[in-house]
Amino acid sequence: MTGTGIVTEIITILVSGISGVAEGVGAGLSTLATSIFLTGTGENQTMSVFGILIVAFAGISLALALCRWVVNFVTSLGQRNR
Asked: Block means of pLDDT (10 residues each) for the chain, length 82 residues?
């Protein structure tokens, strides 16, 4: 076997191992997110109380951050004062 063939085989083995690990991690994260944020099975899935709280607090945080940005922009009249 030539040097190029050996390097090709090594890369093939590494890539297949990495993609196998990535598929496993992705499936695990998907299952985790589904079990935390959704309740019910099949067509009757609804968002859990925890998921609703996360979305509500994320919305409040986004609204406050945008308000702060607008207030800072208006009070500085567009200058980049920090």
From this structure: 86 86 92 87 85 93 95 79 58
